[in-house]
Amino acid sequence: xxxxxxxxxxxxxxxxxVARNAALREIDAxxxxxxxxxxxxxxxxxxxxxxxAARAALWRRIIPQRYHTASLADWSGEVGDDLAEWAAxxxxxxLLLLGPVGTGKTHAAVAxxxxxxxxxxxxxxxPTGKLLDVLRPTxxxxxxxxxxxxxxxxxxxxxxxxxxxxDWTAERLDLIIDGRWAExxxxxxxxxxxxxALRERLGARGxxxxxxxxxxxxxxxxxxxxxxx
Length: 229
Fold this sequence. Notes:
Elements: H1 9-34, H2 40-62, H3 77-88, E1 95-98, H4 105-118, E2 123-127, H5 128-135, H6 146-150, E3 154-160, H7 167-182, E4 187-191, H8 195-211, E5 215-218
Parallel strand pairs: 1-4, 1-5, 2-3, 3-4
Helix pairs in contact: 1-2, 3-4, 7-8
């Protein structure tokens, strides 16, 4: 997996600009080759196709390869309906995905955020332990700031609870959750912990901020509809 697993606005704009310029060069080359006029609708279509390709490439860069093709269509029943409802309009609500290992929590988290990415919003994916590592004060090249995490439109915090609990990690998580709550930016959290254990890990304030108006889904081994690819 490449590092870091996030789309930032600057990188996204660069990718769009590169794709747009490539599309325009193709149009110019075609016009020179046969002298045919370029209709406005055709120009818009090529530009849109270029931007879509750029966003698809960015998605592959920030999301682990196993989940590149994760889709809401992979889910059925009440869970599928709830995921689709949240993806279409989270309205500031967080999404909590609970359950033991192997029940598809990460897959569901990525699938729920793909529509936002396709609409042009910024999405960030972070395994919680890795995120806490790169938030530590250091001069290393991978270090990021809290604001980089707070400011994205959709944030996936994967496997909350596997990190080693310390006062520092608890404070970082609280700052992220509280900052995103204050800015009404939806967070998707996956965890193997039960809700009572999650409350103990996050503390009363962080837990309240996270779960106050959240959609919480309990996944089990037979929840996900397996589809052929």
